[in-house]
Amino acid sequence: LDAIVRIYEASIPASERKPASAIREMARRPEYLLIAATDNDQVLGFAALFAPPDEPFALLEYLAVDESSRGQGVGAGLFTATLQAAAPHALLLELEAAIGHDDTERELRRRRQAFYRRLGCQRIIDLHYQLPLRTAGVPPAMHLFVHRGAITTPMTRADLGRALRRIYSDVYAKSPDDPRIAEMLAPLPDPLSLA
Ligand SMILES: CC(C)(COP(=O)(O)OP(=O)(O)OC[C@H]1O[C@@H](n2cnc3c(N)ncnc32)[C@H](O)[C@@H]1OP(=O)(O)O)[C@@H](O)C(=O)NCCC(=O)NCCS
User: Which atom of ligand 1 is least distant from the CA of 45?
Assistant: First the structure.
């Protein structure tokens, strides 16, 4: 767990990070799964999955690989393990929009999106995801992506609304009636467009 926390703090931007104690807490919460990629005793990376047993979705809350082990397939392997843990449900993930004035940062965001797209994730079109975290300033513009596995039925606005209410309340300790949820849902088509 110490190694996971170290990778977490080094890899995830401060404005998108909860306090380290929240990661430690995930190891004890039954609706969370922490998955570590290891080589002998060394932790190379981890995934934090919020997977409430009474919901038809899971949220990949964090995925990070130690800088020295990136680009070797560890992240893809962790993502595959996460998908298997979430199955048969849809897997949601919060990703920074590939915009911004800083060229280096924008390129990293683009690569990250490319990484998840290669693994089969799609963006929920027109959704301006509001990450309700205020730990170190306002987080950047975000998208919500989804991996639907073998699910072939369309994803509806009601499906998303239910997931957002649960995420706001159980992942971010906000009200399930937070007005930002209605704001996010209002402009969306029903069923949702994914691309
Ligand atoms: C994104 C990340 C998990 C990928 O893990 P990985 O083990 O390097 O991934 P793989 O080796 O399986 O795949 C490599 C791909 O990951 C992405 N990637 C690699 N290093 C990256 C970095 N520093 N930043 C963003 N994406 C990166 C790229 O798409 C890369 O493919 P490319 O070299 O063709 O551009 C890892 O780079 C990371 O921890 N980044 C910082 C934390 C983060 O962005 N987490 C996701 C949001 S919670």
Answer: 39
Tokens of 26: 């995930």
Average confidence (pLDDT) over 173-190: 98
Distance from C-alpha of 190 to C-alpha of 135, rounded to nearest angstrom = 33
Cβ 76 under 6 angstroms from ligand 1: yes
More confident of the two residues 70 and 100: 70
Distance of alpha carbon 106 from alpha carbon 139, whole angstroms? 14
DSSP 21: H
Q: Are strands 57-65 and 90-96 parallel, antiparallel or unpaired?
A: parallel
**Residues with Cβ within 8 Å of residue 106, at least 6 apart in sequence:** 98, 99, 100
Q: How far is the CA of 136 from the centre of ligand 1 (A)?
A: 23
Tallying the residues shown for the chain, one arrives at: 195
Nearest-CA neighbor of 59 among 188, 160, 192?
160
